[in-house]
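S.,

Sequence below, as promised.
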Amino acid sequence: MTPETAPDSTPAAADPAAADPVAADPAAADVPAGTEAKADGADAARPQTTALYARRSRTPALGLWVLIAIAVGALIGVIAALATQTFWIAGIAYFAAIGALFIGMPLAAIAALVDARRNRSAPTRSSRR
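The prediction came back faster than expected:
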């Protein structure tokens, strides 16, 4: 075959970028055609916004008080296990679980009641109008 009749001698085959624009820019394969102009125009027209959330009071949430109450009960259980000279890890874990259940849970219930009473007596935002 002569160079004039060879399949590679066509101008499109000589320049793969001219025949296939995706081959020239692999990043363009992910973006559908015509969306580049829309995305650039939409981003330029829409201002960037930032949301900022602030708590109004400095008191901890109820969940923190419940966790603290259960942890205090477990700590009391560990101290009781060590006071009774139980040095096995299973015995210490047992005392901690019993302390969390029988001391921490009632403390958590008291914390929940106090929080409910405090929030019920506080005026709501809609009632201040």
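The CA atoms of residues 81 and 87 lie 8 Å apart.

Coffee later?
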